[in-house]
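Project outcomes to date are best conveyed with an example. Our students and postdoctoral researchers have been running inverse folding experiments weekly, and each run begins with a structure described purely in tokens. The record below, which covers 187 residues, was selected by the lab manager from last quarter's runs and is presented without edits.
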């Protein structure tokens, strides 16, 4: 993934040093190395970078953001953050404070219709919407369906809440929202 050059030297976007087993499995291995990004100064720069990722990853929705970028947009009230995991995951594994939970159950018509109806109640189709799940896979598919239903500014949060699974079959050790040290709560 590329990072946009910071304008005038403000706002730093830099790739992290590659780590062992740093291959991302989502999107069928299209990314060779995970890129961690430090938030840039302005939300429009974050969204521009997300659109660059759209092209690089061949996404059908507006783009993709890293967890730190999602937190920046959410803090600045430049986006609505929606967690698409199941209610038990949201409650017991933890979630970002202030997010809504709208479960994504796949592409079948009935759950898809329910998801889109709840999404329309939570956010306007022309607003910036960030979708997060456990690892960035469910939110990827949910973003595609949302975009096809008219959400023009829907973005996936790469790495998700728990991140990529490691060689020991555990999450939370390579990347993800919690690994980035971003705020979260547990019920």
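After processing, the design step wrote out the following sequence:
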């Amino acid at each position: 993934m590329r990072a946009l050059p910071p304008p005038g030297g403000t706002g730093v976007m830099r790739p992290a040093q590659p780590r062992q087993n740093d291959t991302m499995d989502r999107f069928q291995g299209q990314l060779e190395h995970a890129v961690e990004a430090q938030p840039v100064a302005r939300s429009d720069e974050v969204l521009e970078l997300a659109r660059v990722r759209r092209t690089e990853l061949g996404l059908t929705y507006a783009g993709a953001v890293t967890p730190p970028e999602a937190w920046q947009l959410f803090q600045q009230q430049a986006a609505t953050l929606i967690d698409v995991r199941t209610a038990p995951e949201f409650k017991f594994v933890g979630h970002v404070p202030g997010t809504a939970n709208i479960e994504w159950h796949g592409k079948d018509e009935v759950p898809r219709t329910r998801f889109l109806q709840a999404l329309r109640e939570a956010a306007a189709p022309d607003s910036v919407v960030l979708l997060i799940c456990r690892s960035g896979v469910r939110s990827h598919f949910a973003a595609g369906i949302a975009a096809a239903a008219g959400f023009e500014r829907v973005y996936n949060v790469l790495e998700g809440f728990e991140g990529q699974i490691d060689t020991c079959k555990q999450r939370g050790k390579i990347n993800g929202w919690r690994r980035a040290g971003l705020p979260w709560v547990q019920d």
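The longest strand covers residues 80-83. The chain is about 30% helix and 10% strand. The training component of this project remains on track.
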